[in-house]
Design goal:
By secondary structure, this protein is α/β, with parallel strands linked by helices. The protein contains five helices and seven strands. The strands form two sheets. Strands 2-1-3-6-7 form a five-stranded parallel β-sheet. It has a two-stranded antiparallel sheet with strand order 4-5.
């Protein structure tokens, strides 16, 4: 599983990384710390030109140069496919309890919305559920006779 973690707080990033390690879900994680880095990663621009398409996008809401929703909106406006239509599960991690933020997440097809501090058990349920969906939705390749 390819995971993109968009988180500017070192403590929250470390907690998430250690929770993923304890989950025993095989994954590769990339950490970026701003809207501009996340957008470049998802668009495969600059140093991220060979970045993998993430299976799971973990978005902090409050970033130094905008919000996690800015990431989704920027990708949606670009010429690349919308992250939510490419099989990427998007999970927002936020301390905010703003109902307008939650409504905007729903409009942008965010799959899950978790309040910080995130309960590790709930977080791991989301990761494992996504992993199960990946396994069941992977197409089986049929041999081609030549």
């Amino acid at each position: 599983m390819e995971i993109l973690l968009v988180e500017d707080g070192w403590t929250d990033a470390r907690v998430t990384i250690f929770a993923l390690r304890r989950s025993r879900v095989h994954h590769r994680l990339t950490l970026v710390r701003s809207v501009s880095e996340a957008t470049a990663f998802l668009r495969r621009e600059g140093i991220f030109s060979r970045a993998p398409q993430p299976d799971l996008l973990l978005l902090d809401m409050m970033l130094p140069d905008g919000t996690g929703l800015d990431v989704l909106e920027a990708v949606k406006r670009s010429n690349v496919a919308d992250v939510n239509t490419c099989g990427t599960t998007t999970v927002v991690l936020t301390a905010s309890s703003d109902p307008e933020l939650r409504a905007r997440c729903d409009e942008l097809n965010v799959h899950d919305y978790m309040k910080k501090p995130v309960c590790e058990e709930d977080f791991m349920r989301v990761v494992r559920d996504h992993k199960k969906l990946m396994i069941h939705s992977t197409p089986i390749l049929e041999p081609v006779l030549v």
